[in-house]
Amino acid sequence: MKIAIEDRGAFASAIVQLESGESFVSESGAMYRTSAEIDVDVTTHSKGKGGLFGGLKRMLGGESFFLSKYHAGGGVSGEVGIAPTLPGDVKKIDLDGSSRWLCAGGSYLGSGEELALDTQFQGLRGMLSGENMFFVSVEGQGPLIVSAYGCIREAAIDGEVVVDTGHVVAFEDTLSYEVTKAGGSWLRSFLGGEGLVMKLKGTGRLLVQSHNPSAFGAKLGGMLPPREG
Amino acid sequence: MTTTVRLNTPAVATFDLLEGDGFTRVGGAAAAVSAELRRVTDGGLVSATEAVQILETQTAGSYFAIFTPLVVGQYHLTIRHAATSAHKEFVFDVEGDGDLLFNAYGAIVERELDGELTVDTGHVVAWEPTLDYSIEGMGGLKQTFFSGEGLVMRFSGQGKLWLQTRTLGETAGWITPYLRA
């Protein structure tokens, strides 16, 4: 399986080359083109965890209920192009099995079939924040593709860092995290518009995005006419 | 040499015809043409200066407001309905010897196709009519309704195909939950 990230920057996409017998899983709806030889199926399953419950949990995490699965059958090969919805960069992370990765809701784009997906609840404070309350956790050995709103910056954390929850793309679970208030008090934190932040501690990799999707959604949504019905 | 390119109008909500060569080529897909900006939208609105000759304007049915063949210099432009499109969208046929400039939402990906390719309809920007296509659901019923892919275009044959890496439709779907109730 070869994965190339094309058009890095605002409108990046990933092209996944599948050889005979290989499979790839993506958020449903992410496929924008595929070779005719590739089988496309819909599943609620991912390796290990899955089924209906897995689908429900993903939905709560801001991801689709279903996953799309692409498979190159015996003797055939082909490619699948996947692209996110928002303008922004796409990045591939190669998991070596030594650590899990946690993706913020909406950042998970796709992964090799050999990776196990699960959903992790951020706690009640996450619920209050208006940000996505769940992370998609990805475990095993294989390629993971994440997408961002804006550009992606990687930081190697050794110690402690504080990040606005809306700017987190993904991080290694060798980092422990806590969702907490930004300011001195809960009231000041919310009035200050910073809402909640994540405190990450330990040693590991962190990916952040330059733009905050839910802040953009709230701003633009407020300028648009109300929903009908 | 005369080439024909077929444009999927929802992908190119507007497209511009330019004269001269003094513009930046984008993603290998741009190209064209005659001096000042002309703009043709899929609503059938045509704005043009004297360089553009509008040969005929007529209403073709209630849904399709205008059927407008244009001649822009050496370019022949036909606005026509894609007969098999479930979206009832327009397709522009642009024919002539020169360059055509079109834009997209997202990066424009050019594919030289020799064989088959399945593309989500919203990602199709333009193609050469040497390619055959059919509009279908993605596999069986289950895939079509649950995959989030909706309809796809299955291209086959030889020719160039231009795709965009983002769609306005999906973006509109993304913003909907943020609208005031």
**What's the architecture of chain A, going by CATH?**
4-Layer Sandwich
Compute the CA-based radius of gyration of chain B. Answer: 17 Å
User: Beta-strand level of the residues of chain B, as a percent range?
Assistant: over 45%
- Unreliable residue stretches of chain A: none
Biggest pleated sheet of chain B: 9 strands, antiparallel
**Global shape of chain B:** globular
Number of strands of chain A: 17
- The end-to-end distance of chain B, rounded to whole angstroms, is 55 Å
Oligomer: heterodimer
Rg of chain A (CA only): 18 Å
As residue ranges, the low-confidence spans of chain B are 9-89
Overall body shape of chain A: globular
Helical segment count of chain A: 4
Mean pLDDT of chain A: 84
CATH class bucket of chain A: Alpha Beta
CATH topology of chain A: Double-stranded beta-helix
Per-chain topology:
The complex is a heterodimer of chains A (229) and B (181).
Chain A: E1 2-6, E2 13-18, E3 23-27, E4 31-35, E5 38-43, H1 51-60, E6 67-72, E7 78-82, E8 90-96, E9 101-104, E10 108-112, E11 116-121, H2 124-128, E12 134-139, E13 141-147, E14 152-164, E15 168-172, E16 175-181, H3 186-191, E17 196-209, H4 213-223
Antiparallel strand pairs in A: 1-2, 2-7, 3-6, 3-10, 4-7, 5-6, 8-13, 9-12, 9-15, 10-13, 11-12, 14-17, 15-17, 16-17
Chain B: E1 3-8, E2 14-19, E3 34-41, E4 46-47, E5 52-54, E6 58-60, E7 64-67, E8 70-72, E9 75-81, E10 90-96, E11 108-120, E12 124-127, E13 131-137, H1 141-146, E14 151-164, H2 168-175
Kindly describe this structure.
The complex is a heterodimer of chains A (229) and B (181). Chain A contains 4 helices and 17 strands. By secondary structure, chain A is mainly β. Chain A has one domain (2-223): Double-stranded beta-helix, CATH 3.60.160. In chain A, the strands form 3 sheets. In chain A, strands 9, 11, 12, 14, 15, 16 and 17 form a 7-stranded antiparallel beta sheet that branches. Chain A has a 6-stranded antiparallel beta sheet with strand order 5-6-3-10-13-8, with no helix packed on it. Chain A is globular and about 60 Å long. The termini of chain A are far apart. The mean pLDDT of chain A is 84. Chain B has 181 residues and is mainly beta. In chain B, 8% of the residues lie in helices and 48% in strands. Chain B contains 2 helices and 14 strands; from the N terminus they run βββββββββββββαβα. In chain B, strands 1, 5, 8, 9, 10, 11, 12, 13 and 14 form a 9-stranded antiparallel beta sheet that branches. In chain B, strands 2-3-4 form a 3-stranded antiparallel beta sheet, with no helix packed on it. The longest helix of chain B has 8 residues, at 168-175. The termini of chain B are far apart. In chain B, 35% of the residues are buried. Residues 9-89 of chain B have low confidence and may be disordered. The chains are: A mainly beta (229), B mainly beta (181). At the A-B interface, strand 4, strand 5 and helix 4 of A face strand 11, helix 1, strand 14 and helix 2 of B. Strand 4 of chain A pairs antiparallel with strand 11 (108-120) of chain B.
